[in-house]
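Lab notes, practical 5.
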Amino acid sequence: MSKTIMELSAANNITDTATLDSGTSSTIYADLGGQIWKERVVQYAEDSRYFDQFAVVDKTMVGTGTKTVTIPKSTSHLTITTSQTEGDVRTITEMTNLDAVDLTVSASSFKYGEVSVTKQIFMTSTIDLIVQAKWKIGQALAKDLDSAIVTALESGASSTSTNHAYGGDATTPATLAAGDTLTPDVIADGMSILETNNFEPKYLVLHPKQIRDCRKDPQFNNASEYGSNVVVMKGEVGEYLGLKIFKSTNVPSYDSADTDSPQTGSAWSADGKKGILIGTLKGGEACAYALAWKEMPGVDYEYDKKRALHRIFYDQCFVVGVIHNAAYCFLHTTDS
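Output from the prediction step:
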């Protein structure tokens, strides 16, 4: 007897079946028929969504026919003339430092996919394969969003020192050398870049290999400096110099000779990573980039009787845009 939608939705957090001795890629009657499977699948770890936590989030387009949302921003600090001559008309300072970022939905903004499970496999497995499919869909939802944000940040970064700090004494990816790994000095340089532009360094997203460098450095490992491992935000692994630190394999990764495009255009001299340091306004408000939703993430299910397939659908639609490219900085370091 097939399960109802409510039953299919009851379980959660069970993942990939690809590494089982008898897997879903094989012929059902050859590999699955008559076997007893363990109910719990050993999970294969994947990234979750982090970068939306640091964005200006707008949902005004959801449920409407609107395809563009405008995010206002200031382009510079406005200096008001306050020194006046007694008896004269005061000097007028015109408000000329405002601009806007338009986030417009296009065909590529719509992300959707599907995972299916055959009736035969589903009915001869003690594992709830629908839950496996829902987990994979959820990971795809998260991966798409993080990847889109990172791509927007790379595209919005200038080729000047505004958005870049380097390991060792390097000034470009081409001048990085072996041993130019992540150090407190690199983080301090990045923080200084943001602070020079009057932004407050707040979040640091690092690749696991950069986290490795933190673990090996005595200055990071000092509990009074690095902080505890108490999770305060989703994915947070620690704190350093007031920065909340996150670990993600979604940060940019480059092999030796890869071009650092679309940023510096320089070829990397060695395998390396670009951690992302994200700033806020002085009050802690997000300001570096915006995330505008058109369709909130959704997972649907239906049973296709004609094809004898259990089908799980994934849909979401969003647009990402950089607001202030001086409010974030990439930390270029080598893997070893």
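Observations recorded by the TA: The mean pLDDT is 83. The chain has eight helices and 13 strands.
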